[in-house]
Specification:
NADH Oxidase, 5 strands, 44% helix
């Protein structure tokens, strides 16, 4: 395969073994994510995506909040594996939080009533594209990342901690860092079962 984009798509994996060793400077990381936010498409060019980049102690704080939240609902005798996951995520270089601005979504629903029911779905699709663009871009730079979903359990605490607008809806969390352990083998269904071609 000679197409470098498709090779990047192939190489992106869920990586859980990550370290805090730097690869890019913080400024380069910010520029990479800003570029993705700017150029990832959205329905009606609505630009509903919002991103928060947490580095260092700020990223650690997110996983403290998540751990404290989960302690309230996970039985103590079963919390060991959860604690290990929190430590693993906090061991990276940072975490990216993905949000959608629901106020913008609601405004679009009012402006284009005939598409009212579609805008929440389109918002989620745009968010998914942005997550994938950033994930793949990080992978190209040598970072490992995974996508986590502790929302909505941590939503209120996250908004309070970083003073974020109430209209922002948390979609996912992406801990990332230098790859410390590669992904394992991946099984694939026959692609013929997932794709049909009609000529």
């Amino acid at each position: 395969m000679s197409n470098s984009f498709l090779k990047s798509v192939e190489n992106r994996r869920s990586i859980y073994g990550i370290s805090s060793e730097p690869i890019l400077s913080d400024e380069q990381l910010e520029a990479l994510i800003q570029h993705a936010v700017k150029h990832t498409p959205s329905a009606f060019n609505s630009q509903t995506a919002r991103v928060v980049l947490l580095l260092g102690e700020q990223s650690d704080r997110l996983w403290e909040i998540t751990s404290d939240t989960l302690k309230k609902i996970v039985p103590a005798e079963n919390f060991g594996s959860t604690a290990q996951r929190m430590k693993m995520f906090a061991g990276g270089y940072g975490t990216i939080l993905f949000f959608e601005d629901m106020q913008t979504v609601e405004t679009l629903q009012e402006q284009f009533e005939e598409y009212k029911d579609n805008f929440p779905t389109w918002s989620q699709q745009s968010s998914g594209m942005l997550q994938y663009v950033i994930w793949t871009a990080l992978s190209d730079e040598g970072y490992g990342a995974s996508l986590q979903h502790y929302n909505p359990l941590i939503d209120d605490a996250v908004k309070a901690e970083w003073n974020l607008p109430s209209s922002w809806k948390l979609m996912s969390q992406m801990p990332f860092g230098k790859v410390a352990a590669p992904a394992g083998d991946k099984e694939f269904m026959p692609v013929e079962e997932r794709m049909h071609v009609f000529k």
